[in-house]
């Protein structure tokens, strides 16, 4: 029987290793397809966890979500958007008022400054509208590819791959990419998945990363992807079962707490 220290060593070693993967792109696409089909069964209703009503609200909420949780962002944005419903209103807001609303998020001074800068740039350069292209979105202050892809996919229906901490980690565990760099990982994932499932698959991966496939201690035994996952054996030490196990509902409370901690630590 293995001791907790041995289990911990095994987990660390597995985290450092990348799984074997098929050589041919066609075989890798087939393997990825099996995983995305299973994710669709496991997480049929996965969606963007941030509350928003239009592209501007989603853009601001996504920028605010750095280094905090979506739940916390959702706790302040109704008041923020009630008082400052569009870029013009937000650009004209008093900095102290923004800071007061954003205080519960932490880093509230920097976040208030970001909101101001973003709103002003939208007014100055885009007539107060959120642009619907990656090239234009990433020219806005505080907006990188990750934020731009969230807005494109969820507000404009333009497929985007959002490589956040969960999508990057799980994609490496599934052999979809070997890259730690999000831009390179995005390119590898894009080569495997058809564009029409990019946005929804990212939501499903994020759900799986939050609930089951944690950064430090993935719940491989009982994972609904165990039979398809090339990292199962790396973590568990024995080959995966032929059929998926049930989702680990009994440990859901623990996994949600772990997820919250990991999200706060890894966002940015
Ligand atoms: S078996 Fe499941 S929990 Fe374990 S690494 Fe694979 S996807 Fe993650």
How many helical elements? 14
Largest sheet: none
Order of helices and strands: HHHHHHHHHHHHHH
Low-confidence spans: pLDDT under 50, at least 5 residues? 248-259, 262-268
Mean pLDDT: 89
In one word, what is the shape? elongated
Quick gist of this model?
By secondary structure, the protein is mainly alpha-helical. The protein has 14 helices and no strands. The structure holds iron/sulfur cluster.
Plain-language structure description:
- Helix 2 packs across helix 12.
- The protein is 58% helix and 0% strand.
- It is mainly alpha-helical and 268 residues long.
- The C terminus is likely disordered.
- Bound molecules: iron/sulfur cluster (SF4).
Ordered list of secondary-structure elements with their pairings:
Layout: H1 4-16, H2 25-42, H3 55-64, H4 70-83, H5 87-91, H6 95-102, H7 108-126, H8 134-137, H9 145-155, H10 165-173, H11 182-192, H12 198-211, H13 232-236, H14 252-266
Helix pairs in contact: 2-12, 3-9, 6-7, 10-12
Iron/sulfur cluster is lined by residues 173, 212-213, 218-220, 223, 225-226, 229, 231-232, 235.
């Amino acid at each position: 029987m293995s001791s907790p220290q041995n289990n911990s060593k095994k987990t660390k070693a597995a985290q450092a290793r990348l799984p074997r993967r098929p050589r041919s792109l066609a075989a890798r696409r087939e393997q990825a397809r099996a995983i995305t089909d299973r994710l669709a069964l496991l997480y049929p209703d996965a969606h963007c966890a941030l509350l928003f009503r239009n592209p501007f609200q989603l853009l601001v909420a996504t920028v605010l979500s750095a280094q905090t949780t979506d739940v916390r962002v959702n706790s302040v944005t109704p008041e923020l958007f009630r008082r400052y419903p569009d870029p013009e209103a937000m650009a004209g807001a008093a900095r102290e008022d923004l800071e007061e609303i954003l205080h519960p998020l932490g880093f509230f001074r920097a976040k208030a400054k970001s909101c101001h800068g973003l709103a002003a740039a939208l007014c100055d350069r885009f007539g107060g509208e959120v642009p619907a292209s990656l090239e234009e979105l990433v020219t806005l202050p505080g907006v990188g590819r990750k934020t731009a892809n969230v807005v494109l996919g969820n507000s404009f229906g333009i497929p985007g791959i959002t490589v956040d901490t969960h999508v990057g980690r799980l994609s490496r565990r599934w052999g979809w990419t070997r890259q730690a760099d999000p831009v390179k990982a995005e390119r590898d994932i894009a080569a495997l998945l058809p564009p029409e499932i990019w946005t929804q698959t990212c939501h499903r991966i994020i759900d799986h990363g939050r609930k089951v496939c944690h950064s430090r201690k993935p719940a491989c035994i009982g994972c609904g992807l165990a039979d398809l996952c090339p990292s199962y054996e790396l973590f568990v030490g024995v080959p995966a079962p032929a059929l998926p196990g049930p989702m680990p509902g009994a440990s859901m409370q623990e996994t949600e707490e772990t997820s919250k901690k990991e999200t706060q630590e890894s966002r940015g």
